[in-house]
Amino acid sequence: MDAVIAAQGLTKRYDGAVVVDGIDFSVGKGETFGLLGPNGSGKTTTILMMLGLTERSAGNVTVLGEDPMRSPLTVKRRVGYLPDSIGFYDNLTATENLAYTARLMGLPRSERERRIAAALARVRLSGVAGKRVGTFSRGMQQRLGLAEIIMKRAEIAILDEPTSGLDPQSTIEFLDLIRELRGEGVTVLLSSHQLDQVQRICDRVALFQTGRIVLMGPVGDLARQVLGAGFVVEVEAEGQGLDRRLAAVPGVSAVASIGQNRYRLTADRDVRPEAARAVVAAGGALTKLSVDEPSLDAIYARYFQVGSGVPREVSDAA
Amino acid sequence: MRREGSPWQGLGAVMMKELADHLSSARMRVLEWLVVLTAVAALYSAIGQLRDTTAEDPFLLLRLFTVQSSSLPSFVAILGFLIPLMAIGLGFDAINGEYNHRTLSRILAQPIYRDALLIGKFLAGLVTLAISLTCLWLLVVGLALLFLGVPPGGEEIARSLVFLIVAVIYGGVWLALAMWLSVVFRSPATAALAALGIWLLLTLLWPMLAPAIANVIAPADPRYAALGLPTPETLEWQQILARLSPHDLFGEAMLAVLSPSTRALGPVFLNQLQGAVLGAPLPFDQSLLIAWPQTVSLIAAVILLVVGAYVTFQRREVRA
Q1: Are the beta carbons of A44 and A85 closer than 8 angstroms?
Q2: By residue range, what is the domain housing residue A122?
Q3: Scanning every residue of chain B, which has its alpha carbon at the shortest distance from the alpha carbon of A91?
Q4: What is the pLDDT of residues A47-74, one digit of tens each?
């Protein structure tokens, strides 16, 4: 996998305060990468350094093989950025806003009109193309931001807090659009503090805390590493000695009884078929079988609980 | 190390967008009406006075700009106050407005340098000023033709065109100042107040302060005082200090260009006047020469202020 973004020891200090503290990461081509962490943990500053919009204090970052401080125009031409504030002009229409961006890029007029119409259609905003952006809802503005990235034909889309402030329906729509982008081979880098939403679309995530990356890797791997195992399977069944039977299932590391005829299995993979077979083989009556996907929320909560504020060594599970 | 690409990439796009914003803004409507009404008021009294002297004056059109009645200052003097107001109105929220609407980071994430945004906004403001002042100029010349019925001569037109150009440069000084303040202060209201404060200081208070400070630097010589004459050193300092204000520079340049009989803008010695026909008009090019230092100073002030705004803007963090 070719790395399209690579950072080594990236550091940003403001008046002595370290905002981003020597982070290393790389994002492969076509990957969806999540920068996760609470507000103020250095995600946006990292993004701004990747775009050359703020100067780094130390370290290195390359985007598409270019240094964003040395060749900002090349980088910014090939990278689309959607800030958390979105930032379209309220007094201009959707089309006018995109046309302004297109002119800043130096697109010829005919190309401009074609691309804008196509991009607005993609994000289902064609119907309001002539309306002023000030009248748009937050969700529509976010989609317009995505339309801008589509119009730019960016190779990398950087989205800062794209789902914050969206209602659940808009969030689902927006995440679908991001998935479509990824389907076209666009590398997506997004930051968020809403872990559960991001988890659904990210191939890999990096967890930020006070300017450092404390955890990095695919969500499943992180779960194994932090929660001990990735999957929690709940079994509700009537029968004798089921707990022993379930504990014998390969891959299961622990069985806990959580009520009458209810068991919780901790496993390193989805062991539902084996568990079902074990229950049936024991002559039990299976009434319910469910699996909890490993949740970033749980990982996050557990990690910082265990770490109790003391950052562990950066661990890359990838 | 050289930067990659052209700093002017996107300049035209920024300029056209800002120009469109300016020309369609409510602020612009207010400024236009302010200018037109004041111009009509000033011209009305001037034309009334001029009707009596039509036959005697070879530079009738120019007199229109400079004549003053007891109740109203001359058109040029009014413009000296109004142009800064217009320019400040156009520039005070140029950059901090982008911060406050949170549009700055998205715009700067496009493939342009900050140069293009700043210079584009400045040029758009300058073109807006130039458009309004040109309209005003046409209005004045047209009204003069209507009311006076005397067609202006070629030299008069040339001189009044120079007036127009210097007026735009003068506006540029205030526009650049307002834009600099819009980079320095995050709140447009603070930037506007600061700009208006500087404007008040330089146009109203400075003419009073300059003589006082000159007196401190070079106290009056009792020998000159005994003769009832001002001390030359004091006079010189007074002029140097007064010229720190763009308002004064504009006034001097206009005096030289619009009053053809102006021979010098400072104190002159009697021997310098030997052989001069006092009150006779200077040729156009000679008047230009007199106004040239003032004009260059105004241009220099524009450049300095734009550079100041540029340096401050480059060091600003994008994040609001």
Answers
A1: no
A2: 3-223
A3: B21
A4: 999 999 999 999 999 999 999 998 999 9
